[in-house]
DNA sequence: TTTATAGCGCAAATTTGTCG
DNA sequence: CGACAAATTTGCGCTATAAA
């Protein structure tokens, strides 16, 4: 039998996976065993059918099994299949069974292969860490330890661990801690104001997002073009990421964070203390809890002798996915209203039957995201419809060419933006709420769109406004974190460092134009993949197994999944109904808006209906006034100039403004939402 | 007691290296 | 090119162990 489907373990690497193809197997079979190939083709052909899909997949599979029976090294398909099964969380039993059928290599072989890959990756990561600038991101994972026999005192519990990734980024310019501390004193409330250029930018952003909605949802508008408000787009390149071994360290304590950092630096990356001299700075990214622990840890270790042990080098940065989730939560909370208020989120969600997933203690991010986007679309359409009617411009046919039409739409939308959105001056409460909702949603849309396209300039502008909004709600912890961020942008970091830090917030896994995602979301995806493998094992699987075989190969696993499912034509799990239901849902929301004359020009006829509607908080105003109240800012500045012997405690004035339960919920937020997807 | 599984030792299979 | 030895790899089967 042919010997050209041979694969050696030593020359198998992550890149082998993307090359795997059934066509290649067919070619090999045809050239090396033409007779068998012909026979197989003949046998698999369905009588009188031109559909050759079954033959296409069966011939290489059977051929590979035949080759495997002759030599256990002829395992081109079996090795990839084994890896696929492992990554999909198959148990040893499943793999043994399929090994018996000749479809995959044996379980120990997969184990050995993964150990080889891990060993190789470890060496590589040590090398790269010394050459290139990098940043670190880590997050907590909870493994659910299942116990099948439920009884009193034998409940399921959790195993805690930490996963980390090293990401190649840009160099930060060196800086000293004293400089940084001094710079905090220069923070003042005007740092949160917008200058003229920023106001103008926001106008263009608003126009962009409104026209995008019109293009997507109105017939005849798809040719309409509008300039993308581009500021500083990162080149669309695949980000180099190196998953690190997972650690059985509970990251939710200060001690745990210290151990995580030490393990990564010393054991995994093999760096000496001297590497951190000369003001070296490294971004350490994570969720809110992680970042705050890190700040606490830095305060705690002020007295240590070396920069390395003082953690001077660690620059904590909160990441965008968690910020985005919080923004969604704030908007939902602010415009929720009640079921009796027409046009409130509560009422709309009830109508669409989506209440359960959104208005709970632990809302699902994707449910919130979907609702907000649909309501946004409907509100934009309503606004357009109303202002077009007022100007008697419905008739689109009068425009001969697309350019003229496009220009006209751009002009009109800009008019709407200037009149309605940036300067809300409306008497009807529900219309005012809707306008405020639009304004805040534009920020949300802008954040997610800037992330997707990798524009760090737009992200910077958005985060600046978010810093204000977060001060309005009961989310002081995030608000303070963004204050840190803004302060560093304004007074601490130079241009090089600013760009490096902002770039570190995004990862591009595909290398495509729209392939960017927040760094923390990337880490959450990793955790999900690791769990996937883990849950195929029994509950008592030792953590070492993950460290030695799984966590460093997560990206390989993801690649295998993608490649195998493509090659074997597994149906993709994109939800096909989404588009249809979105359309009807948006239509339903629009109906409610029309019925209640929300955003309508003449407000008198419906005044009665609007009476019961409570006014939503103007988040931006509330945030600004919170900042203008000097107490908050001074407390913040003092704490960070003079240091604090306690750790992690924010200035005391937060206590009265937020009840402790709310705060505790925010803490949980990332746990709950990360499970979502 | 039965069952599942990770890990390990070991024999068999297979490849690689060497020599004439 | 073939024979033969050495080295490497594979996969079976056993054991310890935790869970059912």
Automatic annotation (TrEMBL):
Protein name, as recorded: DUF6589 domain-containing protein
InterPro entries in the cross-refs: DUF6589
Organism: Podila verticillata NRRL 6337
Source species, domain of life: Eukaryota
A Pfam family it matches: DUF6589
Residue span of region Disordered: 645-677
Domain DUF6589, first and last residues per copy: 187-577
Biased composition range(s): Basic and acidic residues: 663-677
């Amino acid at each position: 039998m042919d010997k050209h489907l041979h694969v050696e373990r030593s020359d198998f690497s992550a890149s082998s996976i993307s090359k795997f193809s059934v066509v290649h197997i067919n070619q090999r079979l045809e050239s090396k065993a033409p007779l068998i190939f012909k026979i197989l083709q003949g046998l698999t052909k369905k009588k009188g059918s031109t559909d050759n899909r079954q033959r296409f997949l069966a011939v290489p599979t059977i051929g590979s099994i035949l080759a495997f029976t002759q030599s256990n090294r002829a395992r081109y398909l079996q090795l990839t299949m084994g890896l696929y099964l492992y990554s999909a969380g198959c148990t040893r039993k499943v793999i043994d069974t399929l090994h018996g059928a000749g479809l995959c290599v044996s379980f120990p072989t997969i184990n050995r292969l993964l150990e080889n890959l891990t060993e190789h990756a470890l060496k590589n990561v040590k090398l790269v860490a010394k050459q290139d600038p990098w940043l670190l991101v880590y997050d907590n994972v909870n493994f659910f330890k299942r116990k099948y026999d439920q009884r009193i005192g034998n409940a399921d519990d959790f195993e805690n661990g930490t996963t980390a990734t090293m990401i190649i980024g840009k160099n930060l310019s060196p800086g000293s801690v004293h400089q940084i501390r001094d710079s905090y004193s220069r923070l003042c409330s005007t740092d949160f104001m917008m200058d003229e250029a920023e106001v103008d930018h926001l106008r263009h952003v608003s126009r962009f997002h409104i026209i995008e909605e019109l293009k997507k949802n109105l017939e005849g508008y798809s040719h309409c073009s509008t300039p993308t408000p581009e500021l500083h787009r990162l080149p669309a390149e695949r980000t180099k990421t190196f998953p690190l071994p997972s650690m059985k360290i509970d990251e939710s304590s200060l001690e745990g964070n210290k151990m995580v950092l030490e393990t990564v630096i010393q054991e995994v990356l093999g760096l000496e203390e001297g590497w951190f001299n000369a003001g070296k700075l490294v971004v350490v990214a994570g969720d809110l809890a992680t970042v705050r622990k890190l700040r606490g840890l830095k305060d705690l270790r002020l007295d240590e002798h070396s920069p390395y042990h003082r953690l001077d080098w660690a620059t904590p940065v909160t990441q965008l996915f968690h910020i985005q989730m919080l923004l969604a939560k704030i908007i939902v909370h602010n415009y929720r209203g009640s079921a009796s208020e027409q046009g409130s989120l509560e009422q709309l969600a009830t109508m669409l039957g989506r209440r359960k997933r959104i208005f709970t203690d632990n809302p699902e991010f994707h449910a919130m995201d979907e609702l907000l986007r649909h309501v946004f679309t409907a509100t934009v359409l309503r606004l357009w419809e109303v202002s077009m009617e007022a100007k008697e411009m419905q008739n689109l046919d009068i425009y001969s060419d697309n350019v003229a039409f496009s220009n006209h739409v751009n002009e009109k939308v800009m008019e709407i933006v200037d009149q309605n959105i940036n300067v809300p001056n409306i008497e009807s409460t529900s219309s005012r709420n809707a306008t405020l909702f639009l304004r805040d949603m534009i920020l949300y849309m802008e954040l997610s769109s800037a992330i997707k396209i990798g524009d760090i300039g737009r992200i910077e502008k958005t985060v600046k406004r978010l810093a204000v909004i977060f001060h309005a709600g009961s989310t002081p912890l995030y608000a303070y974190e963004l204050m840190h961020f803004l302060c560093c942008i304004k007074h601490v970091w130079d241009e090089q460092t600013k760009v490096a830090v902002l770039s570190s917030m995004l990862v591009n896994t595909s290398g495509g134009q729209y392939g960017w995602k927040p760094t923390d979301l990337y880490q959450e995806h990793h955790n999900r993949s690791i769990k996937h493998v883990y849950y195929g094992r029994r509950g008592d699987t030792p953590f070492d197994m993950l460290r030695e075989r799984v966590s460093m190969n997560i990206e390989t696993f993801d690649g295998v999944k993608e490649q195998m499912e493509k090659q074997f034509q597994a149906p993709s799990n994109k939800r096909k109904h989404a588009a249809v239901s979105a359309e009807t849902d948006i239509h339903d929301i629009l109906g409610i808006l029309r019925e209640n004359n929300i955003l309508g020009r003449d407000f008198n006829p419906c005044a009665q209906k609007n009476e019961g509607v409570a006014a939503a908080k103007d988040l931006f105003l509330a945030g600004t006034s919170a900042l203008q109240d000097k107490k908050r800012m001074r407390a913040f500045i003092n704490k960070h100039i003079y240091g604090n012997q306690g750790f992690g405690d924010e200035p005391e004035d937060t206590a009265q403004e937020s009840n402790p339960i709310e705060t505790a919920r925010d803490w949980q937020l990332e746990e709950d939402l990360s499970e979502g997807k």
